[in-house]
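In this section we walk through a basic example: taking a raw amino acid sequence and producing a predicted 3D structure, encoded as discrete structure tokens. The instruction is simple. Fold the sequence below.
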Amino acid sequence: MKEPFSEQSSLNAVFRQRFPERPWLNDLSILWLMSKPYTLRVVAAALCSLLLSGINGAIAWSTKSAVDDILILKKEHYQYLLPVGVVLLFVFRGLFSFCNNYLMASIGAKIVRTLRQAIFDKILSLPMSFHIKSSSGNVVSKMLNDVGILQGTVGFTIKDLLVESSTVLVLAAVAFYRRWDLALLSFTVIPLMVYSIGRLGVLMKRTGMQTRLLIARITTIITESLLGIKIIKAFTMEDGMREKNERALVDHYRNAMRETRINEFSSLVTDILGGVGVAGILFYGFSLVVSDKMTPGDFFSFIVAVTMMYTPLKRLSRIHNNFQQGRNVLDRIKEIVVVDGEKPDGERISVAGDVKFDDVSFRYPGAQTDALQHISCSIRHGEIIALVGYSGAGKSTFADLVAGFWYPTAGHLFIDEKDVHSLSLLSLRAGIGTVTQDVMLFDDTVKANILFGRPGATDADIIAAAKAAFAHDFITELPEGYETNIGERGVRLSGGQKQRITIARAILRNPGILILDEATSSLDTESEHQVQKALEVLMQNRTTIVIAHRLSTIRRANRIYVMSQGRIVQEGTHDQLLAQNGLYRELYAMQFRTDESEPDYTRQ
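The resulting token sequence is shown next.
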């Protein structure tokens, strides 16, 4: 059977529906569309619900025979038949209840599974503007905690809605058949129940949304603490983080208890109103039996029907509150799903490496000033370009635009003479290799991390890339060689080892454009010597953009762009720029001159 949300467009279509005059209808339509691929299971569950409701009605109906035919008329054969019938009714009731619960739970679990996968796929497609505005903990909370609530909404809340509502209707029919005026008396409290449930539901929706936000806050704290545990320990901030987490947990506890109070108060109101209704029934019903206007069997059958009816009515009050939680989840999921992803289509290219900035400016979303201002430059295939400047000058932004992480807000950026707006981002990035200061490795094997460079590469290709990055020797010394799991962010490796694996990943990619953000910063002298020679081979016949902080990495550059406050203020070779009285000489004196004593491996 086809799974829902096989394409992101279908997921967007589901959540972009709008019924502004009836928001609850919008939510129900979304749940229905998510359940649509499992229509057969939904129909089977609904059929079980109807049969279960019919059996509940039959149990109430049979009470008349138990009282009138056995206790009053003394019909002995009923004494043997009725218990057998009751046992059969309860057996079938249990079977239909089991089938209904299982089917609805499976539908809920399937929806949650595919919805989480669809949201994950959508997150991968979202532009950088989304990720810089959203904390990872908040996104994780939506995917795991919030979507998990939908499983309960579909698997149990909707199941209860089907079963309990149909049970109320069947039992109401029994009650009306036995005595219509008594039934009307018992139903006078129902409008009060509905009104109180509706009022409390508004509070539950607001409180439930706050609970979801507090859970997201806790998830963010835990995620950041795990990722930054080394910094926390280095700055002895254990107590500070402990107190921060405790405050978040206390706030969540208080809000969760408020939810519980609203939920339980709803049940209390239902119980009180139900008690008032039962008291009125008993008073009026006994008077009918005493005056022989109603048989004891009819009265007790009526009492059983009404008593059984109040239990599902009480559950329906909880269903309303639970459904409000489901609506909160849908609202939070929409914050991810309806965001437009990166442009999926465009012209596919095999990146050769020509780059041209034509009066390019760029401003980050929400920023007050441009990160890049009127950048114009050309980089030809095979050239090595170095970007230097103080922190915040725009060097990384320059490289990010080339990689297609952002589009220029003004001007034009051309890759191989094609405007980047017209290109397929997947094909563009497939032709770009990146090695950054901020090493990012995944909790997987060495082999899997290198394969990020080119999925599907052979073992021989992986080993060749590792050798070129001078990583093969230390990899073979690991407990399981290339199959060794390196832990989250490569925690089981040294800084130099992690950097060499990322370089092997870039070598395996064999890109047309290579972006190096001080790729040798974490290496010792001997490792740097080896990796510099590997990079020397890697940079041949490909465009290389080097964000440089060390003299040894920029001396061989064909051209150096000196950046300041988002502008290119100087350009030329190392010797040319030193001869000028400008920012480069200042950077050289403060930042690069200490590297003069280091061997220049690029000239060997």
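Looking at the output, two observations stand out. Residues 559 and 573 are 5 Å apart (CA to CA). The chain has two domains: 8-337, 353-431+545-604. In the next section we compare this with other chains.
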